[in-house]
Amino acid sequence: MAGPHGNAAAAPASAPPARVGRWLALALAIIVLDQLTKVYFNTSYQYGERLNLLPFFDFTLLYNRGAAFSFLASEEGWQRWLFTGLGIVAAVVITVILRRTRGQPRFCLALTLILGGAIGNVIDRVVYGHVVDFLLFYWRDWYFPAFNLADVGISCGAVLLVLDELLRARKPRA
């Protein structure tokens, strides 16, 4: 029987959770670290303030009312609830997949990083009405959109998902 990730090693729905607690604990650690850093920057910096650390990197305080790369940030506010709802749905789906997946630590780690990041940004949208960003990379006149630790988790998790699938596809079939 193939699991949610197309792997026969996935646990059937009736099996006990495959150490889902450790993955949820890691997601919680990501959420806590993300929220602590956001509280620090929200209370220690004025909006738009920047502290240069390297010739290509600053700490700053910026707000994003949209999604990745400020997608839909200029809309009237409905996007706050759309992205909040999407984040909650993603968190529920990821948690269900984690409960049903065993023997795939790389896949579970990828989902856990995405889960922690998604919930971290959902908390911002509910509490502040926007996502708090504070990491700014740039080179001369080029700027990468500011981001936060939740975004790092989501991005690393997405890259790890792709890597996991590529490595899984290269394995010889039994």
Please, could you describe this protein's structure?
Belongs to the peptidase A8 family. Keywords: Aspartyl protease, Cell membrane, Hydrolase, Lipoprotein, Membrane, Protease, Transmembrane, Transmembrane helix. The protein is α+β, with helices and mostly antiparallel strands and 174 residues long. The chain has a domain at 53-169. The protein has helices at 20-44, 78-100, 105-127, 149-170, and strands at 50-54, 57-64, 131-139, 142-143.
SSE blueprint:
Elements: H1 20-44, E1 50-54, E2 57-64, H2 78-100, H3 105-127, E3 131-139, E4 142-143, H4 149-170
Antiparallel strand pairs: 1-2, 2-3, 3-4
Report low-confidence residues grouped into runs of 5 or more: 11-15
> How many strands appear in the DSSP assignment?
4
Individual helix count:
4
Proportion of residues in β-strands:
5-15%
Assign the structural class, choosing from mainly alpha, mainly beta, alpha/beta, alpha+beta, or little secondary structure.
alpha+beta
Distance between the termini: 14 Å
Summarize the main sheet: 4 strands, antiparallel
Radius of gyration: 18 Å
Entry summary:
Helix content is 53%, strand content 14%.
Short descriptors:
single chain; 174 residues; alpha+beta; four-stranded antiparallel beta sheet; 4 strands; 53% helix; globular; aspartyl protease; membrane; hydrolase
